[in-house]
Automatic annotation (TrEMBL):
Gene Ontology molecular-function annotations: ATP binding; DNA binding
Superkingdom of origin organism: Bacteria
Record key words, sorted: ATP-binding, Nucleotide-binding
Organism whose genome encodes this protein: Thauera aminoaromatica S2
InterPro entries reported for this sequence: AAA+_ATPase, CHLI-like, MCM_dom, Mg_chelat-rel, Mg_chelat-rel_C, Mg_chelatse_chII-like_cat_dom, P-loop_NTPase
Domain AAA+ ATPase: 49-230
Protein name per the record: Mg chelatase subunit ChlI
Similarity annotation: Belongs to the Mg-chelatase subunits D/I family. ComM subfamily.
């Protein structure tokens, strides 16, 4: 040790090992979710590419259950990510060495203020989005959040940082989180539910969904319905695929992305999307038709390409094809069309 402090010879740094199985130990398992194959697929795609995800459906269909199982299928944080997340957690006194490599999971209540979510105070302190850095931010009952609070997430979703400015001090906190949100289809929650009749008028449904702005929804990569399942189907369904199997596929897809471009597909800069996500001729034709028929924005176009690239990585394909582009477009359908 004395020789190391004097500069000769130097000791090699010892890094804590983070075996994937140990890191996921104690987390909720995806095997607990029966049925909901489309939602499970969307969860895997979101994990593989780091994409934002919106789950909507009647109460009790498993939306929160699915969201809580996302950390269990995500790969462990590498050393740099773990140090960054630990630095933010230590500011709030929340550092737990036992979960050093485990991705944080934050789930603030819908009554949370903008300061609680993005950070604030006379002496600026990190909010929930920074405490979820390199992890998952889960917003349940999404339309119940104050609209101004949700609008404050738009910039961090794009940049991965948030700046908190006060009269005497200004601070910038990291906020590279993965957004997962859940909502009911209407105020009573039973629009489209075969088990119970919906009591809402079309005006009430439109007003409820109108609490979410178009620019905010445009930043969500995957929107998927979690429908009600008949009790007999639920009882007869076998246990779902365990998190360990899904995590292996996610890790393989993430490794491909790290080798190809050095970051998950969801974080690809706009200038790199055309280079790494360009589909084959069949996919290009389908995407061109979808752009015209669905009137997709430029942001939505890039997000479709990123999701299609993730689907191709999961399939082991060199380029997104028509099948991957079609599935990515399906995830971009607006709430109004469902």
């Amino acid at each position: 040790m004395c020789a190391h402090l004097n500069g000769h010879p130097r000791l090699e740094p010892a890094l804590a090992a983070a075996p994937e199985d140990e890191d996921a130990a104690g987390l909720p398992d995806l095997a607990d979710v029966r049925g909901q194959l489309q939602a499970r697929r969307a969860l895997e795609v979101a994990a593989a590419g780091g994409h934002s995800l919106l789950l909507f459906g009647p109460p009790g269909t498993g939306k929160s259950m699915l969201a809580q199982r996302l950390p269990g299928v995500l790969p462990a944080m590498d050393e740099d990510e773990a140090i960054e997340a630990a630095a933010v957690a230590s500011i709030e006194g929340r550092l737990d060495p036992r979960s050093f490599h485990r991705r944080p999971f934050r789930s603030p209540h819908h009554s949370a203020s903008a300061a609680a979510l993005v950070g604030g105070g006379a002496v600026p302190r990190p909010g929930e989005i920074s405490l979820a850095h390199h992890g998952v931010l889960f917003l349940d009952e999404l339309p119940e959040f104050d609209r101004r609070v949700l609008e404050s997430l738009r910039e961090p979703l794009e940049t991965g940082t948030v700046t908190v400015s006060r009269a005497r001090r200004r601070a910038e906190f990291p906020a590279r989180f993965q957004l997962v949100a859940a909502m009911n289809p209407c105020p009573c929650g039973h629009l489209g539910d075969p088990r119970r009749a919906c009591r809402c008028t079309p005006e009430q449904v439109a007003r409820y969904r109108g609490r979410l702005s178009g620019p905010f929804l445009d930043r969500i990569d995957l929107t998927v319905e979690v429908p009600a399942i008949a009790p007999e189907v639920l009882l007869e369904s076998p246990p779902g695929e365990p998190s360990s199997a899904v995590r292996a596929r996610v890790a393989a897809a993430r490794a491909l992305q790290a080798t190809r471009q050095g970051c998950p597909n969801a974080r690809l800069p706009a200038g790199e999307v055309e280079r790494h996500c360009r589909p084959d001729p069949g996919g290009e034709t389908l995407l061109r038709q979808a752009m015209q028929r669905l009137d997709l924005s430029a942001r939505a176009y890039h997000r479709v390409l990123r999701v299609a690239r993730t689907l191709a990585d999961l399939a082991g394909a060199s380029r997104p094809g028509a099948a991957q582009v079609a599935e990515a477009i399906q995830y971009r359908r607006s709430l109004d069309s469902r």
